[in-house]
Amino acid sequence: MKGQEVVLTDMLACRERRVNIQNEYIQRYHCPVISFCMNIPGPIKTNEQIKKAFLSGKEALFAVLQKENIPILTQTEFDEKTGNEIILTVDYPADRIKELTTEIEETHPFGRLFDMDVIGTDGEKLSRGVYRKCLICGCQAQECARSRKHTVAEMQAKIEEMLS
Questions:
Q1: What was the pLDDT predicted at 82?
Q2: What does the pLDDT read at residue 28?
Q3: What is the per-residue pLDDT for 91?
Q4: How many CB atoms lie within 10 A of CB 90?
Q5: Which pTM does this prediction carry?
Q6: Which residues of the chain have a pLDDT value below 70?
Q7: DSSP H or E stretch at residue 134
Q8: Where do runs of H (alpha helix) occur along the chain?
Q9: Domains of the chain, residue spans
Q10: How far is CA 160 from CA 89, 123, 138, in A?
Q11: Fold of 8-130
Q12: Residue 104: helix, strand or coil by DSSP?
C-alpha cells in the first residue's frame, strides 16, 4: 500500500485530539457526536484511494442525516497523514444515530472500512448491535485482531483489492 507512513505517536496525538473535540462538543451542545474515520490497519492510513472511499462514506452519512432531517450543530474535518476524519454534533437520539451509522457500515460497498462512532451525551461510545466481520475470513473481527490471525500485509492487500 502506498502513502505516507505514520508512527504510534502520530496516532496517539490524533486520538487525543479527537477525544478532546468530542468532549468539548458534548459539553457545549449536550447532544451526541458522530466521529467518522477509516479503519485502515498498518502504518499507511491514507492515500488517494482511501480518501475517495472516505468521501463516499461522508456522502452516505450526510445523505442519511438529510433524509432523516437530523440537524448538524457542528462539523470539524481533518485531512492529515493519520487519515481523513469528520466529527459532527447532531441533535438526535444517540441510539437512533447508531442504528443509522451501523446500517451504512453494513451496506455500503466500503462500509467495512468505515469507523463511524457515536458518542452519547454521557461521553460513552455506543456499541453496535452486531459484531463486525473480518475483512479476510468473515469471522468476528475482534477475535481475528486479538489473535493476530492475519498479517497487516494480508489486510492491506484485501483493502487495496476492495478499493480498486
A1: 96
A2: 97
A3: 97
A4: 22
A5: 0.92
A6: none
A7: none
A8: 8-29, 48-67, 94-107, 141-147, 152-163
A9: 8-130
A10: 32, 34, 17
A11: Alpha-Beta Plaits (3.30.70)
A12: helix
Backbone angles phi, psi at 78, to 5 degrees: -130, 140
Rounded CA-CA distance 26/32 in Å is 6
Quote the CA–CA distance of 157 and 160 in Å, as a whole number: 5
C-alpha grid cell, residue 72: 448538524
3-state helix vs strand vs coil in the chain, percent to 5: 50, 20, 30
Q: Which amino acid is at 163?
A: L
Q: In the numeric block, which cell numbers belong to residue 151?
A: 498479517
- The count of residues in the chain is 164
* Phi-psi label, residue 67: left if phi above 0, alpha if psi -120 to 50, beta otherwise: alpha
Supply the pLDDT for residue 145: 86
CB 154 within 8 A of CB 35: no
Task: Say which amino acid occupies 69.
Answer: N
Comparing C-alpha atoms, which of 148, 94, 163, 103 is closest to residue 126?
94
- CA trace torsion 157, 160, 161, 164 (10° rounding): -160
Neighbours of 129 (CB within 10 A): 10
